[in-house]
């Protein structure tokens, strides 16, 4: 007979509740980088600088030139379920921002030493600084100079949750995850200038701007020149749906599905329906056990897709799944038909 492990019910202290919730959002340094950069993108930044030390375990700093946070909102920004991005369930249905759950800053500050500088004005002297340390104290707010925009510094991730800290891998592995998160964000937003530094060395420096040439340069930098030289452009539209991007030739494949990027309205996602449509389209042209390489951007009306399926927002639900699936399949099938031997570019045999 084992001892009962349940006792009386009581409400969790807010700090503990925050730390438990943080586990869903903040898994490792890469998750912090993703959330902070998404915030910077939502703030309309044209330039975002990311700096890490020791794979991010020691330091993560994200600096942006976006809208900044108003003084009166600074305390709220770090509290749970506080967001400027939605007001109602209706807003959620058509959400265009990357964030909306109001959890990332609260979760991160619950498990790290977080410092935030922000300014909504062009006068640097109007800036503010907020510090929060593991939620053991209320965030402290004081005046501090900062240019228009926001800088968030996260030190000693999981310093107060040793069980989590133990799960951090080597510096190299953690930085690898950060780089992958960076790659996704950089592929999602070609228009934003992005810089990634690790241990004071510049790892990526990607100029912004939305012109074709810059876009291809970025694809080449992040996916390799060989991909671009061995890929077909996709540019298809149907009512309410558009698919753009690059699909690798059937001769340019990999043994792992590790270079497959699919974006829905600017958000990278993993989806079984999408994977199925792509697999079907490649079915006749790919050798068994090989995996295609692609970077694809699907745009559809925000009402047509539910992004509030999971805290990390890597999953979505399409309202008309069949329609999306068939559009993807037929667009890719048509693009790949041109590569099929003897097809002469015809649509179907
Ligand atoms: P969410 O992004 O889901 O709203 P967060 O916890 O990530 O939740 O951020 C809380 C709020 O803080 C945001 O809604 C936004 O108003 C503000 N904020 C966070 N980061 C930035 C930033 N870099 N620039 C401007 N505002 C920011
Ligand atoms: Mg956010």
From TrEMBL:
One of its GO terms (molecular function) is endonuclease activity. It comes from the Bacteria. This protein is involved in the repair of mismatches in DNA. It is required for dam-dependent methyl-directed DNA mismatch repair. May act as a 'molecular matchmaker', a protein that promotes the formation of a stable complex between two or more DNA-binding proteins in an ATP-dependent manner without itself being part of a final effector complex. Keywords: DNA damage, DNA repair, Endonuclease, Hydrolase, Nuclease. The keyword RNA-binding does not apply. Residues 219-337 form the DNA mismatch repair protein S5 domain. This is DNA mismatch repair protein MutL. Belongs to the DNA mismatch repair MutL/HexB family. The keyword Transmembrane does not apply. The chain holds residues 4 to 352 of 670 of the full protein.
């Amino acid at each position: 007979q084992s001892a009962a492990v349940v006792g009386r019910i009581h409400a969790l202290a807010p700090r503990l509740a925050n730390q438990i919730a943080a586990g869903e959002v903040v898994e490792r340094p890469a998750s912090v980088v993703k959330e902070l950069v998404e915030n910077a993108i939502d703030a309309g930044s044209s330039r975002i600088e990311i700096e890490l030390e020791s794979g991010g375990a020691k330091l993560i700093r994200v600096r942006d030139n976006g809208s900044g946070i108003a003084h009166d909102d600074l305390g709220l920004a770090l509290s749970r379920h506080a967001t400027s991005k939605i007001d109602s369930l209706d807003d959620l249905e058509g959400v265009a921002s990357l964030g909306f759950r109001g959890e990332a800053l609260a979760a991160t500050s619950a498990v790290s030493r977080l410092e935030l500088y922000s300014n909504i004005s062009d006068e640097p002297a109007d800036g503010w600084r907020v510090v929060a340390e593991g939620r053991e104290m209320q965030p402290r707010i004081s005046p501090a100079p900062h240019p228009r925009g926001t800088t968030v510094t996260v030190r000693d991730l999981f310093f107060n949750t040793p069980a989590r800290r133990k799960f951090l891998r080597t510096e190299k592995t953690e930085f690898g995850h950060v780089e992958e998160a960076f790659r996704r964000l950089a592929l999602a937003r070609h228009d934003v200038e992005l810089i990634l530094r690790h241990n004071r060395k510049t790892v990526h420096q990607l100029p912004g701007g939305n012109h074709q040439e810059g876009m291809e340069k970025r694809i080449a930098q992040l996916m390799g020149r060989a991909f671009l030289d061995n890929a077909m452009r996709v540019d298809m539209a149907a009512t309410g749906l558009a698919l753009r991007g690059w699909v690798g030739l059937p001769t340019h494949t990999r043994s792992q599905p590790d270079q497959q990027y699919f974006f829905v309205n600017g958000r990278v996602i993993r989806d079984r329906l999408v994977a199925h449509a792509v697999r079907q389209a490649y079915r006749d042209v790919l050798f068994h056990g090989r995996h295609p390489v692609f970077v694809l951007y699907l745009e559809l009306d925000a009402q047509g897709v539910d992004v509030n399926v999971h805290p990390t927002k890597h999953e979505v639900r399409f309202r008309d799944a069949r329609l999306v699936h068939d559009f993807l399949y037929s667009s890719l099938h048509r693009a790949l038909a041109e590569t099929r031997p003897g097809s002469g570019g015809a649509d179907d045999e």
